[in-house]
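Need diphosphomevalonate decarboxylase's 3D structure for a figure. Predict it.
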Amino acid sequence: MHLSNGFITARAHTNIALIKYWGKKNDDLIIPNNNSLSLTLDEFYTDTSVKFSNELSKDSIFLDDVDISNSTKIVNFLDIIREKASISEYAYVKSYNNVPTSAGLASSASGFAALAAAASKAAGLQLTSKELSKLARRGSGSATRSIFGGFAEWIKGNTDNDSYGVEIENPVTMDINMIAVVLNDQPKKISSRVGMKRSVETSPYYNAWVKQCEVDLIKAKTAIKENDFNTLGKISESNAMRMHALTMSAEPAFMYFNNDSIQVINSVKTLRENGVECYFTMDAGPNVKIICKSKDIKKIKAALTKTFNDEQIVVSKPGCGVQFIN
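Structure prediction for diphosphomevalonate decarboxylase:
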């Protein structure tokens, strides 16, 4: 296997799930209980540079210039790549997040998608998008979708080999934007992994959630195909609320909402009552994402800036798939 001489750099964008992934049937391989569907965003991304070297005695890993070389999660992920490439060298990894880390804005999705692309190429592997998607999944489930631009689906599968993402539509033809309202950029108290596990094991509604996701997915894909913005928005909003109902019905119950989250949700509902076509979604964190058309961005921002700062409001269009930027 021929290692790269210099650093290989890849950029991957975050994706926000419109039909959520929440819960695994295999924790080690990160195999989910249901298919999910997402929109990749252009404003949030991770740039990661990797070089394998025989001069290192351990992996040297930096995230936003902070030494995180003791991250078991990343070292284990690099071990998977070393095994695939039949190499033993350790890696230099330099990663920069243009997205708050662990705050419910899918930084792990862009992070592991970028790491999968850069590290696999640096190790001499030439992987297809499908293979990259399967690899990225081993670091973070949602990363399997960040390999792709536009609308992407994660096919749940049952094994390491048949659980991967596929591109549904890229470039996106629908007039769709996402306004992220960043209410808290601090790491969340209960990680997605811990939250999922608790929900799967203790919520009495979990099986009903999985069945409903199957219905939601079919409707969402049809809406994309038919360029039906309102149907996609409605399904995305209800799917998100059902996911959060799992956290509140778990034992012990927990929630990712805060007071500001509820304020944004109420603002969206008020805007909608006044004729503005917009919908909200939330992941495992307090930040709210508003799905809207281009013509309504100014009106929505004006409503939000009555309460929140301009810096907290980030407008994003559909983004592209993983790219090498050397």
